[in-house]
Every structure is written in structure tokens, then in C-alpha cells.
Amino acid sequence: GATPAASHAAWAAGHQPRPLEFWPKTDEGLPTPCWQTTVLQDMHLGWPGKCRDLVRTAAVNALECHESCTQDPLCSVWQYNYMTQCWHGVGRGCALSEWAGSDLLATGAQRLQHGSVAVLWSFERWQILGLSELGDTTWGTWNHTFGEINCRAWCYSSLRCSYWAYAPGRCFVEDPATTGNEVMYPLQVWIGATQNSHLAQQIMAGEYIAHTCPPKPHRDEITSVLEPA
To answer: Any alpha helices (H) in 116-197, and if so which ranges?
Structure first.
């Protein structure tokens, strides 16, 4: 909408979903771990996994590195190498060129999605103001399907990312913890989102999403699924 009231009124609940509104939190308002994690990208399945913006952790082997990342809802990427061991973070770059000239050899790396993702709005030819540019997620291939998949995966793996948008060779994501930039809430047209810019006309795909942690299935529900008809 063009005003905060109009933007809120566009939603059935009477307000635009707030960031992490559907994610369980501690009494201090911090996101809690979710029982469900999904591997979106894996170094052993062709993903380079050579990311920047990671922080060294105390894990001493690849298994610990992986497990501690699954227990931290703000850990999007884990990366392990024998020289400096375990690293966690949101993971930017992640292409082979990011480590050009480095002698570090990662032995394991994955990008994880915590919980599930609900797509609230799919769009094209809209520029969402306040997003951060990741760069070329085609990694020099200029395969835009590939670039879009990588751009989407980055946002799905970060609880702080509610918006992503892809233009040819350019990925834009919400990343307030790294950049300090925030998308307007509630989102208003022309002030927080526009179709009138040159960049807006280049946006091929984008989504507004909500991160959720679904209820853990009970044992009897699992058994009924596994039993033969």
C-alpha cells in the first residue's frame, strides 16, 4: 500500500507479518533452534563452499562443525578445513574465486535451511529498497536459472532474510546484521519498493518469505506413515 495503514490492510491478519513473527523465541526474543534442518548446498555435491563472512568456532572436527551449526538458528553455513578447523556464518561469495591464492583446503561445507519457508509474495520488476547486493550468484557462468537458485538459497538459509531479488548476474538479499540496511516495515510502495527504477525493470524473480519452524511430528504420526497400507 501507499501508506502504513494500507499496507497492513492488504493482509488477512490485519497487519504485514513482522520479521520472525512465526519463529519460536526465547524470553529475550532470540530465535530458538528448530528440530528441522535441510541441506540446501553441499561441497560434496558440487557447491564450492568457499565463503567469506564466517567466524571461527570451537568445533574440532567436521561432524562437530556441522552439528553445532544445526543447533544455531542463525548459522547459515558451516565450513571445515584441517588448518583452521570450523567456521560458521551467513557465508558470502562462496565461489572458487573467493579463495584465489589461498592454500586453505576445505574438507566439508554446507549451506543449511533451518525450519521451513513460506512464500508470502512472489514478484518480478520490483526493486525492494534496503537490500544488500551479494554479487554474481551465477559464479561467472551467466546461467540465470543457476544464479536465481543460489540467490534464493542464500535467503532461505538466513533467518534475518525476508526478501531476495535476482537480476541478470546480480543477487540482492536482506542482510541487516552484516550491512545495517533494513527493508521498510510495513513495506510501502514508492517509498520502500518501486517499479520505476532501472534496476526494477531488470529484476527477473524475487520473493517475500517467512521462516517457520513446523511442529515436530509425534511418533504415532511417523509410524502411521511408515506402515504399509
So the answer is: 144-156, 176-179
